[in-house]
Amino acid sequence: MSDDGLREAEAKMREEGVADAAIANFRHYYEQLVAGESGMLGDDDLEQLGEVPRYDELPEAEDRDALDKAVVIKLNGGLGTSMGMERSKSLLEVKDGRSFLDVIAEQVLELRRRHDVRLPLVLMDSFYTQKDSLAALERHPELASDVPADFLQNKEPKLGVEDLHPIRWPDEPGLEWCPPGHGDVYTALQTSGTLDALLEAGYAYAFLSNSDNLGAVLDPRILSWFAAEGLPFVMEVCAKTPADRKGGHPAVLRETGHLVLRETAQTPESDLERFADIDRWRFFNTNNLWVDLRALRDVLAERDGVLGLPMIVNRKTVDPGDKSTPEVFQIETAMGAAVGVFDDARTLEVPRRRFAPVKTTSDLLVLRSDAYVLTEDSHVEPSPELADGLPLVELDDDHFKLLRDFDARFADGPPSLVAASSLKVEGDVAFGRAVVVRGEVEVRNDGDEQLRIDDETVLEG
Fold it and tell me: How big is the CA angle at 121 (ends 54 and 360), to the nearest 5 degrees?
């Protein structure tokens, strides 16, 4: 039955025009799944990291030659479906009337101007995000470079849990497919021809990060160290706080002595409590990665296009918005897991300002507020006026999870959070203009009617 399922899946991928190398990667993980492998990494398999170099210990020299051979690659395949969006998440307005993509474009252009280098911006789009994202980039015509502006992420069939055959969903055929996780970026670079195009144009280094993390700006100091050390791969990490207990962490695989990335989905249930121990697992992966493109080309050639990143098996329903639909497996890999592929890969501890992702509307509220500032060089950084570090915001999912509901309740703009340590909102609450939050604040509405916070109200305690 499993052989039939694999043949059916491969035929379906070929009919869809999926590249041979992407099919080979899918086959690699399908065979692992059939063999009963789960991709799990238990605590007994891992050791803690040794000494991790820190950003502030790096030389301050800037290598212009390395900068002129660098490219910025942004993962841009997400639709923001968890917030109810139906278009590219990177087009969401986040700061001073600008979208994620606007800010990213300005960051790249500022680096070009300051250092007089080429520095292309290249997006990894999905079929869902490509058209809108490329149209948005037309607002920045000066971004044009000597390599393509984007390449497409691959796709693979969702598999029925019962028989491991590709799921059929005639009412909405698009739901039969899923992305192979952001670990597909390396395969997609190869299958799209982008990797060869970059190398032929003289590019040697890539900075990869998520488009929803505006703290992830190419840093010349890191790049210069990366190039001078001749490293093939570097993962930026941050020290964990209690808020980061669920973040994927790097570790050393006992069996090989190589670095490895472990995500929550790869952790046995018996180890989940220890996974969250921030004293044992001190760092989390920011998904800001540095890759030597020549080393990537060589390792892909050595492995016939299959890097063999650790498998992540996600169990979902064919329609994520309808839990009554059949259960499926989605086979994925993580981009940061490539830290285990290269013999001399390293981790680098970076300041927290380089990690500012937006995964929920709670994150979005903090970013849109005065807790973050947009600097003259288009960096999005925590405000120097913060009273007690970045505030922790928890908005009621029933009323704020979807972007349309969130925007309706902050129609007059976000409250001031620069003097806040936390804001928790329970129930249906709308905020007026110029509301100020100070210290620890909890707003609770147990009634059926919406509670409105009046304009210029100061919430304290």
Answer: 70
